[in-house]
């Protein structure tokens, strides 16, 4: 296998992202924060140092713990044997909640200092002239417990994320439903997948953040008052004392003092999210990119008309993307090749791989060449210039079916993908190290088109007698999907043969029906499209660890 550098760990990248976002966003919205705090408890940049330190360290810690907890949750799900497990919205919520608890416990001392500095003028009695003076005074007068005043109510703030998720997900579904209704028949569907753009993400995130901030605002008022250095004298003792006194003296309005700058503070913080995108892009460059970031590097899928629906709208499907430069295409092919290797490995098709040119020059890795692999694949690429990818492995059902040395029977819909376009290489000469053997296998693939259905390019598949299966395609995605489908079709054929041996009768699909169906399920675009769920599965399961 080829070697690659892992680059920065996901947890470190998330930490850098949170640090950047927290620092810049806090600097921008600090005036709103001090207005909010003074209105809650009662030089716009007084207390800026602990505010920046608190926000930066909080978001850095949050993303660090969130990444670690997500990995633990995913590990627990896959440890049961479910290799296709992925994180659900509930898993992300749990991970965010646990990360929030750890973060709040670690950063509470900073928030105590920030609140006390923001709630008083520099010259006021008992006010801290600087953050470090505040640290010393708290230790001398209250001990280390003074740094954790208001921690209990702060932990309640983790529910902020629950409200935000509860608002964000329905808003996103409403957005997609509305976009679908507004899309007309003559508008190309540039993004067939449900994916939010930057503007929509900013809008929906801001709305959900504002709602969550407004709903959970009373806890912020109580927390700010508890963290004042003269909290007991001014507001009461403990959570219940502060809440009771606030209600008695100010009524329900007291729990919402400063809400206007408060909710705008939460909303404007979302503008810092692009700074996280800078770090996320670095994950792609280091081979650890997440799904969304990776997709942004690929050209949007093309669409083509595939008939009309009952409401007379054109039916469109995604097709193989076009690239502005050769380098862009190479990056795309390599990412999808890496994903195909993982898909094959998950299914037990991993017989080894090497990266060589058609002449045998090693272009990736530093291992020895697999002579048999090179003999077969180089001959195929010489004979079929249209075949940019070839897949061959000794899969279980493919090997079993190859022992019969016969073609597939058209008895299932999946088998129709190979109607008139698969062959049997009925000669077994041992390990294919002879160039002539590779050329015979390539010749068995036949021409690049199927005369029976015109100019639709053939997938190309060969059953190698006593050996295994081989497929080709114009893209890695196409060739990989044909192989997966051929393997499963061989499995169905073997099961049907076993049932037939017990006197059950097979029902064969006629040539006319087969010729019609193959136009619907065959062709390079259909093969490429059918592989995309497998690619997305690998992206979700590995968080893009195979990119690079």
UniProtKB/TrEMBL annotation:
The keyword Transmembrane helix applies. Residues 335-494 form the Class II aldolase/adducin N-terminal domain. Keywords: Membrane, Mitochondrion, Mitochondrion inner membrane, Repeat, Transmembrane, Transmembrane helix, Transport. Solcar repeats lie at residues 91-174, 200-283. It comes from the Eukaryota. The chain crosses the membrane at residues 12-32, 151-171. It is a multi-pass membrane protein. Residues 288-310 are annotated as: Disordered. Belongs to the mitochondrial carrier (TC 2.A.29) family. PANTHER family: MITOCHONDRIAL NICOTINAMIDE ADENINE DINUCLEOTIDE TRANSPORTER 1-RELATED-RELATED (PTHR45683). This is Class II aldolase/adducin N-terminal domain-containing protein. It comes from Monosporascus cannonballus.
């Amino acid at each position: 296998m080829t070697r690659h550098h892992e680059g920065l760990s996901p947890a470190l990248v998330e930490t850098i992202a949170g640090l950047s976002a927290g620092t810049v966003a806090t600097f921008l919205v600090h005036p709103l924060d001090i207005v909010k705090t003074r209105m809650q408890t009662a030089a716009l940049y007084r207390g800026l140092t602990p505010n920046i330190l608190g926000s930066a360290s909080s978001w850095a810690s949050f993303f660090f713990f969130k990444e670690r907890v997500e990995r633990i949750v995913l590990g627990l799900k896959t440890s049961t044997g479910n290799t296709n497990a992925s994180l659900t919205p509930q898993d992300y919520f749990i991970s965010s909640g646990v990360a929030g608890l750890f973060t709040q416990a670690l950063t509470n001392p900073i928030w105590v200092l920030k609140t006390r500095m923001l709630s008083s003028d520099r010259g006021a009695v008992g006010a801290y002239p600087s953050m470090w003076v505040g640290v010393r005074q708290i230790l001398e007068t209250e001990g280390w417990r003074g740094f954790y005043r208001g921690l209990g109510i702060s932990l309640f703030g983790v529910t902020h994320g629950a409200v935000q998720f509860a608002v964000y997900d329905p808003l996103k579904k409403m957005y997609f439903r509305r976009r679908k209704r507004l899309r007309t028949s003559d508008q190309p569907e540039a993004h067939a997948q449900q994916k939010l753009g930057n503007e929509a993400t900013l809008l929906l995130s801001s709305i959900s953040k504002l709602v969550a901030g407004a709903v959970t605002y009373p806890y912020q008022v109580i927390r700010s008052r508890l963290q004042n250095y003269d909290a007991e004298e001014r507001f009461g003792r403990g959570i219940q004392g502060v809440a009771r006194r606030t209600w008695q003296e100010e009524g329900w309005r007291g729990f919402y003092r400063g809400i206007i700058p408060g909710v705008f503070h939460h909303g404007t913080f979302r503008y810092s999210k692009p700074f996280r995108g800078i770090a996320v892009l670095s994950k792609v460059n280091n081979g650890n990119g997440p799904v969304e970031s990776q997709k942004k590097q690929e050209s949007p899928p093309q669409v083509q008309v595939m008939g009309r629906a009952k409401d007379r709208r054109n039916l469109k499907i995604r097709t193989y993307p076009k690239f502005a430069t050769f380098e862009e295409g190479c990056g795309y092919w390599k990412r999808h090749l890496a994903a195909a290797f993982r898909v094959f490995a998950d299914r037990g098709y991993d017989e080894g791989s090497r990266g060589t040119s058609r002449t045998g020059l090693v272009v990736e890795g530093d291992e020895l060449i697999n002579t048999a692999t090179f003999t077969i694949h180089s001959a195929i690429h010489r004979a079929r210039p249209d075949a940019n990818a070839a897949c061959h492995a000794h899969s279980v059902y493919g090997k079993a079916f190859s022992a019969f040395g016969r073609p597939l029977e058209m008895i299932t819909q999946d088998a129709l993908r190979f109607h008139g376009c698969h062959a049997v290489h009925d000669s077994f000469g041992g390990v294919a190290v002879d160039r002539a053997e590779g050329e015979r296998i390539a010749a068995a693939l036949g021409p690049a088109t199927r005369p029976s259905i015109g100019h639709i390019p053939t997938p190309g598949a060969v059953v190698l007698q006593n050996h295994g299966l081989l497929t080709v395609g114009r893209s890695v995605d196409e060739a990989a999907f044909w192989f997966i489908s051929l393997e499963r079709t061989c499995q169905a054929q073997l099961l049907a043969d076993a049932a037939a041996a017990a006197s059950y009768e097979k029902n064969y699909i006629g040539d006319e029906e087969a010729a019609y169906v193959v136009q619907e399920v065959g062709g390079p675009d259909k093969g490429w499209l059918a592989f995309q769920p497998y690619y997305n599965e690998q992206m979700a399961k590995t968080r893009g660890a195979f990119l690079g």
